[in-house]
Amino acid sequence: MLSPRKWPFSIKWLPKAACLVGGTVRDALLGRESEYLDLDFVLPSDAVETATAIARHYRAGFVLLDAERQIARVVFEQGTADFALQVGASLEADLRRRDFTVNAIAYNPHTAELLDPLGGYEDLQRKRLRMICAENLQEDPLRLLRAYRQASQLGFTLDQDTQHAIRQLAPQLRHIAAERVQSELNYLLSTVKGTPWLRSAWEDGLLNDWFPDATDEGLRRIAAIDQTTVVIQETWVEFWAELVGGVRGATAGKSRMEPKASGSARTWITIAKLASLLSSDPQTAEGQLWRLKYSRAEIQAASMVIKASPAFQPANPCSKWTLAEQYFFFQSAGITFPAVMLLAISAAKLQRDVHEVSSMTAGMFFDGLSAGNSEGGALLIHRFLNSNDPVAHPKALVTGQDLMKTLHIPAGPIIGRLLAALQLAHAEQKITSRDDALALAKTFLAADSSNF
Description:
Layout: E1 19-20, H1 23-30, E2 37-43, H2 47-58, E3 61-66, E4 71-76, E5 79-85, H3 91-95, E6 106-108, E7 113-115, H4 120-125, E8 128-129, H5 134-139, H6 142-154, E9 157-158, H7 160-169, H8 178-190, H9 194-203, H10 216-235, H11 237-243, H12 268-276, H13 282-291, H14 296-308, H15 323-333, H16 337-352, H17 362-368, H18 377-385, H19 400-407, H20 413-427, H21 434-448
Parallel strand pairs: 2-5, 8-9
Antiparallel strand pairs: 1-2, 3-4, 4-5, 6-7
Helix pairs in contact: 6-8, 6-9, 8-9, 9-10, 10-11, 10-12, 10-16, 12-14, 12-16, 13-14, 20-21
């Protein structure tokens, strides 16, 4: 897997002392393959010049990532290759400045020699993430959070001394650029494997500054979301497809300096998880997300989820909701309905502590939660999945022009209020046709024209 034959450029362009380092070497030794190449080279000299020559010869993209530290990137169709000037007097000195031992193994492609001065290979075999030293973590505090992301990705444990150092240094994470913090958090939110490590990060103080309202209940709700989605994926394919749909307008939120974390796409599942970490006050929650540099679409989505979620109350289970109450709920939830419903079901699961739900059908699953906040959830989901349902997806029976022409009323706020009232009446099945709508509009005006 380390063979230069897989590279998008010839090894002849590399100086004899150039070495492949970092995640590429680590993953190759673990047998982890990726279709997208992410190569990192350390050169004792002429790093930018080497990158420039390769980019020019292969007509590839070129990005000068850091002029002062002499780091450049060449972008190929099948991957990227970063070239960095060696830090320190030797390759070993460079490796000793890195974060974890498993990332401090070098490979010389000219000699096929592995260089492992810090025992990284032994840690790979023991599936352990171990820091090189606490000073390296303090030098770039993002490494504190990155430890949890990498442990999640690799299925590793954290070395005890490393975790102790992270707890001591946790307050330093507040000084890191929000975009970089968000990048690491997004991976933990986007995968089932990330959930226990997200909890560990919270318990170890890494989320205190960025998610001050995160609670034990919120973390348990995220774990319940993972368990719930497994059931939905197996039993309700149509709703699963809605949950994994991308949030329109969401951005990757990644700096070009940060690694590409697989599974970091924003879905309604990740929005539901994100909402579980935020303040219950929508305005406060929006401020927390703005600080983390989330996109406007993501912030609006999370805010809508938080606003709509209180509709599920034990005193008023949704199976008892009137058609009007259902209609107004769908209006408040809007496109975020999948995330709102997922949160409600997961909260109910926590209350009921349902076991072995994987063997249930979708109907049995939701019925089994009927005593919780998601009572009647199956009905709401069926409505949402039916694009012709007048409660979840109301369609106008008449237009504003129809009202103005038939009722002889001028344009103005009165038209909007009438249309809203007619839409509600349609949802309540009081009217089913254009003629019904016009007749009811006349009745509204005759009965109380001051409201219209």
